[in-house]
Amino acid sequence: MSRLLFDDRDEFFFDSFPDDFIWSTATASYQIEGAWKEDGKGVNVWDTFSHQSGNVLNGDTGDVACDSYHRYQRDVAMLKELGVSHYRFSLSWARILPDGKAESVNKKGVEYYSRLIDALLAAGVQPYVTLYHWDHPQALEDAGGWRNPQMADSFNDYARTCFEAFGDRVKLWLTFNEPSVTCWLGHGVGEHAPGIKDPLSSPFQAGHTIIRAHAKAFHTYDKEFRSKQNGKLGITLNVPWAEPKDWLNPDDVEASERLMELRLGVFANPIFGNGDYPALLKALFAKKTKELGLTQSPLQQFTKEEIRLNRGSSDFFGLNYYTTRLVSKPTAALPPTPISEAALVDVHEEADPKWPTSVKINVHYQ
After folding, report:
1. How many whole angstroms separate alpha carbon 294 and alpha carbon 229?
2. What's this model's pTM, rounded to 2 decimal places?
3. Which helix (H) or strand (E) holds 243?
4. What is the mean pLDDT of the chain?
5. What is the DSSP letter of 225?
6. Residues 254, 199: Cα–Cα separation, whole Å
7. Above 60 in pLDDT, residue 6?
8. How far is Cα 8 from Cα 181, in angstroms, rounded to an integer?
9. What pLDDT is stored for residue 110 in this prediction?
10. Burial class (CB in 10 A: 0-12, 13-18, 19+), 54
């Protein structure tokens, strides 16, 4: 049976891409735009985070980055030279709504993205727009950010603003890119903006609000814009595949399932499943709550109406994949207070030393 499993898995390596496969490139606003305080843009959480000493290697910031804000025409020309048919990029929330509020639209920010979209279409490249790639206005973070349930309404207002401004030309939308990164790296271990180190609470508060925000934006598009704009809207999740170290060991297989549910199912099940968190996670965190002496489970509860709105709130399943981890049942005692996702669900993870590592390359922008 295990031989059949591996034969099926490895078949992918020898298959071919279908004729209608879409070749594209992807970027994020903070990673490429620069112009961090030009033309009315507000400060976002990554501006704040990167400007604080010690948060980013070498003190690097996105103040200039690739300077795409000024050089977007060259970007579009290179996309055309590559021959790709689509380009996925994200909008800077703070460039469009400097303080995060719908009534404070920054006209110059809207005009910038409008010019970019028009240039892409003129070059025969379809825009694939991400509303949120980890950066939101600092003003909203000062009010609690994703830990504040009201952030879901702020995001919905922002999404509506974007649908109104660009939806006549943009037919492919993503609400969030890799929300697990925002939650764990931004709110659990503090390696990303906004730099919060609170692994037993804040990641789950943030994730709960993000799921609600996604669902609100989906239904706003569905009710107010879809019939006129004829677009599609979804979300992109990410997960490092949790490969059981020993497929014949039930403990390792169960460890894989627990970690996959925490990293992927926690978002996928509410949106693509029954509208709620996975039953396995609910039971696991009920147990963890007692073990760790917490006053309540890290997993929050959706209302019946929220479950209804969550369920089926995506036109497609988006998944980013980068690597795989070998997982197993821990053989040694885990720390009393879990500080990693794996430890939180009683899993040991590692990389196989035989796997090839990535190669560092230098890219020069011309």
Report:
1. 47
2. 0.94
3. strand 241-244
4. 93
5. T
6. 23
7. no
8. 30
9. 98
10. exposed
